[in-house]
Structure formats: C-alpha cells, structure tokens
Amino acid sequence: MSMPFYVAPEQFMKDKADYARKGIARGRALVGTLYTDGVLIAAENPSHTLHKVSEIYDRIAFAGVGKYNEFDQLRVAGVQHADVKGYQYSREDVDARSLANLYARYLGQVFTHDMKPMEVEILVAEVTPHADDDQLFHILYDGTVFDEDRFTVLGGEAEAITTRMESAYTTGWSLGDAVKGAVKALAGPERTLEPKDLEVAVLERSSTDARRAFRRIENGELTTLLA
Amino acid sequence: MSLPLFAPHDDPGPSFVHLLDKLGLGFPEVTADPSAGLTITHGTTIVALRYADGVVMAGDRRATAGSSIAHRAMDKVHPADRHSGVAIAGAAGFALEMVKLFQLQLEHYEKVEGAALSLEGKANQLAQMVRQNLPSAMQGLAVIPLFAGYDLRRRQGRIYTYDVTGGRYEESDFHADGSGGRDARTAVKMQWREGLDHDTAIELAVQGLYEAADEDSATGGPDAVRGIYPTVATITEHGFERVPEIEVAERFAALIARKTAQGLNR
Q1: What is the pLDDT of residue B31?
Q2: Would you say residue B104 has pLDDT above 70?
Q3: Is residue B11 a part of any domain in this protein?
Q4: Whole domain around residue B53: which residue ranges?
Q5: Quick one: average pLDDT of B45-64?
Q6: A51 touches chain B (CB under 8 A)
Q7: Is A84 in contact with B100 (Cβ distance < 8 A)?
Q8: Which of B3, B19, B101 sits opposite A103 (nearest CB)?
Q9: What is the structure's pLDDT at B200?
Q10: Cβ-count burial of B81 within 10 angstroms (0-12 exposed, 13-18 middle, 19+ buried)?
Q11: Does A88 touch chain B if contact means CB atoms closer than 8 Å?
Q12: How far apart are alpha carbons B154 and B150 in whole angstroms?
C-alpha cells in the first residue's frame, strides 16, 4: 500500500508557478505600447501563419505568449464571448475590462484547481476615442491582472526588455517611433530583427474602417516604419 | 456571462449560429399562424447588377404593413462584410435579424479562422439561413435576400439570388427581387450590357427602382418632400461603398427631368 505524500500548499503553488514560468520563458517576447493614435503590439514571431496577435472585436485586440495551443484557445473563447455579447446587447457594450476579468478568472481557476497551470501570458488591449482611456491589460498564468498605462512586456526576458522600453518610451510617441522603439527593445543590443521575424499590429483610433480598428502592419509598411 | 470554453469534440468552430445554439440563444421557430389577424411589416424592391468594376446594389426605402406604409426610411441594402453586400425583401423583422446574424457569421468566421470566407462560401452560408427560415416562410413570413460581392480570387462581381427553400442561384448579369422586382428587372434588362462603367451602372439601378415604384404600390419612389432617396451602393475591389444620398437625389432629379422633356411624365 502506498502512502500519499504530504506537500505543503506553499510548495505546491510554487512548483506550479515555476512550471508555468519556465514554459513561458522559453517563448519569444512581445511588447504592447500606447502611441499617439492607439495601441501598438509588436511580437517576435518567425511564423506568418500562427499568429500571436489578433483581433477580438471592433476596438479590442488580443496577444499571447507561451504555449500556442493554450493561448489560441483563449483567443477563440474571447472572440466567441465578444461576438455573443455584442449580439445580445450592443456593440458598444463589449469592452476589454470585462473580457480581461473573465480571462483572469479562468486562468486563476485553472491555476488553483487543475494539475497543470496554463503556460501563457496574455494581453488584452482596447483603443477608445480619447487617448487617455486606451487600455492595456496584462494577465499572468495565475490570473493576476495588471492594468498598464504606458507599455507592457510579455514572455521570455521580459525584465531586460522592460528596462530597454523604460528608456525608449515617450508619452504620445508616433507610430514610427513606437515601432522602432519596441522592435529595438525586443532585439536587444546584440541583434537586429528583420520584418520577417516580426508580427506587428495596431488598434488605430483613426482607422479607415469606421468600425474595426485592428490592422496588421506587414512587410512593405513595416520595412518603411523600421527604416 | 462566463467565458465560453468548449471541449474539442463539442466546439462550434467558426460558426456563430452554432455557437448561439450551443449557448441556448438560437433563433426560436415560429409556431403561431401569422395569417390570424397579424399585420406583418414587409420590405419591397431590391436590385443588383454587375458592371466593369464589380456590382451595384440598390433598394427602395419603403416598408409596408398590409396596405399602409410602415416605414419610409428603411435600409434594405447592407454591407455583409468588406467585399460583399446583402439586400433584403420580405418580412422586415426577420429579414433584419437575418442580415445581422449573417454579418456576424462572416465576421466571426474571419476572426476565428484568421481568413475571410470565399464569396461562394458566404453565398452558401446565406442559403442555409434562408432554409432555416423555411417553417416561417410557409406561414407567410418569407425572407428573400439578394447577395452580391466582389470575388477577390476571380476579380469580378458576382450576384446570387435565393428562393424561400434556400435554393441558391448565381445570376450572370443582374437581378431584382421583391414586390416591384419584376418591373425593376425589365427596366434593367432593356439597357444592361457587358462592361458598363460606374456611372451608367448606378444610373441603371436608379432607373430600375424608379420604374418599380411607378408600377408597384409597395415600392417607394424618390421622396423629395422628406429628402428620402433609395439606397445605392457599389462593391468593388476597394470594398462596399454607399453612393452619397445627395448624388442619388441628383440622379433621380435628372431622370425625372429627362422623362418630362420626353413627354413621359403625364
């Protein structure tokens, strides 16, 4: 007959957190930052088909790092939630804050009750008519939510990248400056990142599409912005 | 509300309609007999025609309930997504709900899958929605949409028509539906030819609606008193674009002046 081992709850939680953090640190990082016309999200991502950054709703974007299948499942759930909410109430009633709370609740639940925590960190961003109201919610694997008001870094080497962003960031910077700053911070002093290594998207306040603010910035345009 | 999370075998995939069903929010089936004294609001004439750069869609603004006018400014031509539009004739309440669901269905697919449906895929989705409405159609609440769009893969405009059973037919050149559809169709048919330019195509759609309003009491003509004019939109590779109402008003004024000069408005 085997005896169940006693593991102190502190140890148990710490092990889970270490496990999740290790998984996340293996992946490449991502930066979300406010700029003059909305929100910019830049990710190091050599794949052109498996996206880290995507559209959730008219003015809301999602980005995830860590295990792709896990954050993609969260992305789809977010799209489903937002579309159903907009259908039942009104498009105006769909907001990033309530979605971020739902994600936090779910991640917290999984972290506490499931064997394996989710190895993801996610970002929920919203652009609003007034620059002061733009939102960045950074949610950790255990459901902790941070409400950022300048920029945030997710994924491996987040601390080093945050330090570099600290020195680069200026309030109300232009799209070009923000793209250059974020990409430099992601690359660090020893590397340069090419457009093919990057996935960049924006939520634009002055979007040409009256409703959907999400837009990907791809090869040609990205090359111009980085030059 | 909670986060909708499904087990892999239970996931509704990119379909918004299936998602609503899973969440118990699906469209309830009509079981009452609407002929028993209810007056249902109906929308009327819609037109679509192909031209050099894509398609033009147009619809009058009147909705009727029995023999009275229910709304004077109803929009029957709606964007379905960036490169397609849907126009509706039939029971207005159901039709507007169908348009809303269809728009969501396309957007939901695009977001979940990360790529838009093909134009034919969109047309088939709409056919399924019309078919689902069949029980209501049997009770007099038919909805007949007209779907048109710019096919980005084939680089041309395409038009699809439907019948109440969800039958989907691709029209090669033009079509009109609703109570004044026959008159509009005849007017367009007389002058349609391959490779029409932008202005002529809009002119032709406007003429079709004018003739329909002339013959059909349920179709609204240009309303200069209130400043309400039919909806006209173009769909090209640049997307769905509404023709400004002021331009539509000018075209109607020119058409009426021309007819008067020819001695036709007596």
Answers
A1: 65
A2: yes
A3: no
A4: 40-261
A5: 95
A6: yes
A7: no
A8: B3
A9: 96
A10: buried
A11: yes
A12: 9
CB contact under 8 A, A80 and B19: yes
Domain tally, chain B? 1
Instruction: Choose the closest CB to B1 out of A55, A85, A103.
Output: A85
Span B214-234, mean pLDDT? 93
Residue B161 in tokens = 């028509």
Residue B41 pLDDT: 74
Q: Assess if residue B144 is contained within a domain.
A: yes
Q: What residues of chain A lie within 8 A of the CB of B111, using their CB?
A: 54-56, 79, 83
Q: Which residues of B touch A87 (CB under 8 A)?
A: 16, 20, 25, 100-101, 104
Interchain CB distance below 8 Å, B25 and A88? yes
Cβ contact B107–A54 (<8 Å): no
Q: Is pLDDT larger for residue A222 or for residue B136?
A: A222
- Sequence-ordered alpha helix ranges (H) in chain A: 9-26, 68-88, 96-113, 158-168, 175-187, 219-226
Strands B143-151 and B46-51: unpaired
Of B2, B16, B112, the CB nearest to A76: B112
Please say if the pLDDT value at position A156 is more than 90: no
Evaluate if residue B30 carries a pLDDT over 80.
Answer: no
Nearest CA in chain A to B113: A76
**Is residue B137 in a domain?**
yes
Q: How far is B174 from chain A (nearest CA, A)?
A: 28
CA distances from B257 to A186, B198, B250, B260, B264 (A): 66, 21, 10, 5, 10
**Is the pLDDT score of B248 beyond 80?**
yes
Domains of chain A are 25-226 (3.60.20.10)
- Give the Cα separation of B122 and B161 in Å (integer): 13
B172 found inside a domain: yes
Catalytic site positions of B: 44
> Tell me, what's the pLDDT at A5?
81
Mutate to test the interface with B, among A52, A69, A74, A76 (most CBs of B within 10 A): A76
pLDDT class of B142 with cuts at 50, 70, 90: confident
* β-pair partners for B150: B157
| Chain A interface test: which of B82, B111, B240, B241 (most A C-beta within 10 Å) | B111
Please give the single-letter amino acid code of residue B227. Answer: G
pLDDT at residue A2 in the model: 72
Average pLDDT, chain A: 94
CATH code of residue B85: 3.60.20.10
Q: Mind listing the pLDDT tens digit for each residue in B77-92?
A: 999 999 999 999 888 8
Mutate which of B3, B21, B105 to test chain A, going by most A C-beta atoms within 10 A? B3
Give residues with Cβ within 8 angstroms of A194, minimum separation 6: none
